[in-house]
Specification:
The complex is a heterodimer of chains A (136) and B (95).
Chain A (H helix, E strand, L loop, with lengths): L3 E3 L1 H8 L6 H8 L5 E4 L1 H13 L3 H16 L3 E2 L3 H8 L8 H13 L2 E3 L3 H5 L7 H7 L1
Helix pairs in contact in A: 1-2, 1-3, 2-8, 3-4, 5-6
Chain B lengths: L15 H5 L9 H14 L3 H28 L9 H7 L5
Amino acid sequence: MTVWFADASVLLSREDADDDQHGAARRLLSGDAPVATLDLAYYEVSNVAVRAWRDPDAARRLRGLVQALADDGGLFRVDEALAGEATVIGAPRSVGLRRRLVAGARTAGAQLVSCDLPDLVSRDLALTPEQACEAR
Amino acid sequence: MTVAGRPGLDGLDIPGILILMVKVMVSLPDDLLGSLDAEVARRGTTRSGLLRHYVDEGLRQRGETRARRVEELMHASGRHGGRGVEDLKRHRPQA
């Protein structure tokens, strides 16, 4: 059974009906396969909903979504071990969060899923939600 | 069933169930084991069979519970322009 490690972009896609990956993100998060994410997702999804979308209701829904994953045992803390793991993964650009995501998925034995095409999917570090749904 | 492509088993004729199952050791407190055995006897099954059933059922129910909760929570989701990744990067603190 594959564990899907969804980054914040997948959660935002689930909220945003305009997003190309919205339908696939919905299928992924409502499927029966286990889904995990990083604790940083709490901050990231709230930040986008409040600062970019100016939609506190969306922020509340998205925090609830992260909490639902957490209650299902799918919330990974960025602790010292994970941060240490992140430092040994080679990345073309020094983006700490991207490294933590890849390290988090690796630690969980999970497949990283993201809507970030240029930085993650095109580098074969993640699948899109649509690709993940097809792979199930 | 003849095994092919598995180191040490290649060419052997082994009953299928032995290939598909893996034996594991599970630690249980005495009282829980007692309850398990009582249920095994009541159902006329085996410890392995009952544990397989409970694990399968538990995982399936867990997934269904999460899926239902997510759907309830997100039923009022909106339209935000489809730029989630860009918004995420723009508002992400630099590491």
